[in-house]
Amino acid sequence: MVKKSDVDLYLYPLTQGLVLICQSKKSEFLHKTFGGFEIRFDDFKCSPDFESISGNIQIKDGVFGKLKLKNFMAQGRSIDYLEFNFKGKTFEFKGSFQGIDLSGNGIVSYDEKNPLNSKINGTASVVGFNFTVSGTITDLKFNMQ
User: Does residue 76 form part of some domain?
Assistant: First the structure.
């Protein structure tokens, strides 16, 4: 769910894009004519699920870039932040919740036919429980066991 925002759609010979502007912050979703996607977040604050999202992700033959999510809930626990560093077919992440630092890593199962449907699976073990990140690039899920 996205709060009220301005939406701009543009088409250029080599790129098609969608820009969302909310509270003077923007998010861009770009599709490149010769393949690949780019998703940019400029301290984006339009979702009630997160305080903000920042980063730049390139999706082509893997997932590359960095992403930071601030202040959100996962299974009733408040997550202060999660930072992702995508390296193609792998990624690392670190974060903090309730004063506990966590770090982990995972894999990206790249979907050549639909890159936005690429699957992400990662795990961190912290103080007696596991924290997992799973889902697709556009639909991440966070679990604690």
Answer: yes
Contact 132, 143 (CB under 8 A): yes
**C-alpha closest to that of 131 among 108, 140, 70, 41:** 140
Q: Could you report the per-residue pLDDT of 64-117, keeping only the tens digit for each?
A: 999 999 998 887 788 899 999 999 999 999 999 888 899 999 999 999 888 888
In a domain, 1, yes or no: no
Report field, pTM of the whole predicted structure over 0.90: no
Domain range for residue 83?
6-144
Asked if residue 11 is part of any domain, the answer here is yes
The phi, psi pair for 116, rounded to 5°, reads: -70, -10
Domains in the chain, number: 1
